[in-house]
Amino acid sequence: MTLSPKRTDPSTIRTDDPIELSTRIVDGGSADEPTNRTSNELTEIDDHLSIVESFSHIYTFRTDDGLVCFDASSSMTGTRAFAAVRTWDTRRVSDLVYTHGHVDHVGGSGAVAADADERGYRRPEVIGHDAVVDRFHRYRDTDGYNSTINLRQFGGVSKRSGLALNDRDRPFLPADTLWPTRTYSDLATVSVGGTDFHLHHGRGETDDHTWAWIPAYRALAVGDFVTWVFPNAGNPQKVQRYPLEWARALREMQAYDAELLLPAHGLPVRGADRIRTVLGDLASVLEGLVADTLERMNTGQTLDEIVQEVTVPAEMLERPWLRPVYDEPEFVVRNIWRLYGGWWGQDPAELKPAPRAALATELAGLVGGVEPLVRRATELADTGEFRLACHLIELAVGAEPDHREAHAVRADIYQRRRDTELSLMSKGVFAAAARDSRDVLDP
Description:
Number of domains: 2
Radius of gyration: 24 Å
Structural class: alpha/beta
CATH superfamily of the largest domain: Metallo-beta-lactamase domain
Mean pLDDT: 93
Largest sheet: 7 strands, mixed
Number of strands: 13
CATH class of the largest domain: Alpha Beta
Order of helices and strands: HEEEEHEHHEHHHEEEEEHEEHHHHHHHHH
Shape: globular
Strand content: 5-15%
């Protein structure tokens, strides 16, 4: 293929090269440096390929007929991230490929459109899987819910502050987001300026996911199939994930013997052996969780029993591309159960349960009031038994929602539990619970 000249401003290029960093980490098997960087700075990976590391990255391929971008980052980072692209090349973006429809990947597309309008360019063709459009419609239907859970997940929002988030002036899916202009169902090839991009649909973290093979670069652009954290296949507040299909997509990627791996979060990786290692490890832990969970489901175990038994080997979780700092294996097990077994965990009392407040009031009455529950919850938390402590303190505030001592202890227990957790999802939920009780104490 013929490629056009570089248009690079050297002052905008990173000196801490992400490829060099990933090479050290994968070869060494450990990382003391951040692997998910959000600098909004550009690095040239090859003469005609760049990355802007952001809340989700923008990869840009230079072709003779313009630029092809994979993802647009989020609404918060898209303007800065795309401005970094413009220091590298100012020609028209011919095509914008969405790896999937999460807002941190598409929310910055308004900045791409605004740039095209300012320069007098035609807006790009926007390409994604068929289900991206369905996702956008679902986001509109669940606008307030998604805004609240995302802030809880990332910042520990409380119920009180969360009420203000159902604000139609600030929709969860930004109003200037570009919707797909071209969709596909299974496989598609996009050819721009002599460069072919082979798009593949795969279900994993989402049902609308695209990964791409770019033969001219021997590169895999994989979106969130690789994120340099434990796979986000169990998120407790989001829609269904597909761990086994995720693993199958990773195995299919392995067959390409790629030389470049381009994930939407974390570090790009160069070298076939390194790429096989990362893809293989991710696939193996997902395959193992599915196999172990299904084996126990088939022998009649309950969800509670399975959650306590199915784990990932500790040595796997120590690998820098598998650390459970966002999602965690326990949540993935629950999602596997939901996918294959429905929402009921086989506790007959939970099929049609009493209101939680009624159960809390009954149990508080049996033990002599709220105060014994509060005392015991404190004792358990002081010994590190946070799981039991949280059950008891929930009963206490459920029985007496305005009990100030119970809320003071609840805020303390959940803050302490939050501080012991590793995954962002757990930290967010527990921090939100602590804030809920602080809101009661200081309305």
